[in-house]
Amino acid sequence: xxxxxxxxxxxxxxxxxxxxxxxxxxxxxxxxxxxxxxxxxxxxxxxxxxxxxxxxxxxxxxxxxxxxxxxxxxxxxxxxxxxxxxxxxxxxxxxxxxxxxxxxxxxxxxxxxxxxxxxxxxxxxxxxxxxxxxxxxxxxxxxxxxxxxxxxxxxxxxxxxxxxxxxxxxxxxxxxxxxxxxxxxxxxxxxxxxxxxxxxxxxxxxxxxxxxxxxxxxxxxxxxxxxxxxxxxxxxxxxxxxxxxxxxxxxxxxxxxxxxxxxxxxxxxxxxxxxxxxxxxxxxxxxxxxxxxxxxxxxxxxxxxxxxxxxxxxxxxxxxxxxxxxxxxxxxxxxxxxxxxxxxx
Length: 345
Known about the structure:
seven-stranded antiparallel sheet; 2 domains; 13% strand; Calcium-transporting ATPase, cytoplasmic transduction domain A; single chain; alpha+beta
């Protein structure tokens, strides 16, 4: 529950103009520009704390965390061993080709993931919210990241609420709070003091960061910004949770492990059958059998599209300055796997 930074009391239980006085702001004129800048420097930008970015080297290494890639790396090792047993004559072309394709696969996956991250960042920048506030007696539009405690928000239909604020006045004001409370219908707001402590969804004299004005107009004094908002409290809870793979990622990992196991078992059965039927009398014969097993295993690795169409569309629309309606990052990039099934045919 967000409390008033000056008194520690819940803003919904206090008179709005008293809160404005505690925040040293006149509701009729708002903060001065210099004072707003001073508070912004003191409190920091009105933004939720983001997840620390993953280092580039870890993103690159993650491209090789796949059972089928492990199978190809095992094929490289067997090919090198066979080359050594045969006298290390010339270059181990088989091992070089497989290793090059595995490396290229990793590079392609990394580049696509980086481009997908860039596309999402561009879409976020294009949809950055702004708010109308009273500064020095004038209504001005500022980025939501520059809102500070004590700012007087001028709310109207279609506005995104940029910070938690206590209503000073409201006329037919209805706010959609689904992003915060899950309530499907817009909630009617009023500036009256509440009788007791209630949950955020029942604080009818407050508006919250991340919600949107569905109808009406109103004015409110900002009481909390950034991670001190109700949305910031949710962000802290999300930060504390362990990230789990999506159902699609789980299914793909399961399928990859199953395919790798099946391919390995089939290759071993074929090699054992050849050894039992034809016999192996020399190291060269063993090398031939091993290469046959490697060829079978590599040929069974499925090919996948080099680029996901959704990733292409999102990158293209972001570059053109358009925001697509659906922006699920889970569908972007990371679709590249180069098949090597024809190397030994």
